[in-house]
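Backbone Fold Data
Goal — fold tokens
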Amino acid sequence: MDIGKNSFPFENTLSEVKLAAAAALVAGRAINKIYRGDFSVSQKEDGSPVSEADIASNKIICEILASSGCPILSEENADDKSRLAAKRVWIIDPLDGTADFIKRIGDFTVMIGLVENHSPIAGVIYQPAGDILYAAQKDQGAYFYQSGNWKKLASGDESELTRARAVMSRNHLSEKEEMFLKKLCASYILLKEAGGKMTDMLGNDIGYNTETVNHQNGILAANSSIHDKVVEEYKNFCHNR
């Protein structure tokens, strides 16, 4: 994939969006190279897997984003909390979907989000296996780039719960599963700019660059109509338990 410096679909593209896209693409190429061969896998202290592709991607992204001067909160780095004093912070997951990467399923991405005052203002997600780049910028919309063209993203218009589909992960079935903000940031701004909503299951907004990096109360992502109805049903369910 090759995107020209001035070929982004936004009216006033942030320099950070261009930087994030460049970082995601370079990291994605490194991931694909490792994916095509034999690679090593180890375990983190929490028991989750980490591959050499996670480490390589993280190194590349952090080196490229460092030129922005913004702190970086990464899935693979220790959190020294210095980011809490910054106005703008990068929140990244250098390889989201490590389990699928290891199984060679192909469902893995590079996720880079930019937060300002606890709210995402830009996000880039790159799918190396499919060579698809997603990008969003606050008040500028959300798009994906494939085969040399940008196309606008828009959330669906379904409003009936009986016709809605629920999407779940095959790799996250434990009741103890924690949701980390590093996995939500880029997705949040993409969905929001596409016309959707992402909150916790009670309809509360999600804060970013907070003291705690793991999020509680689940995640609900949907178009606006479905989202609000699910929140209402969920609150009723909790009240009547």
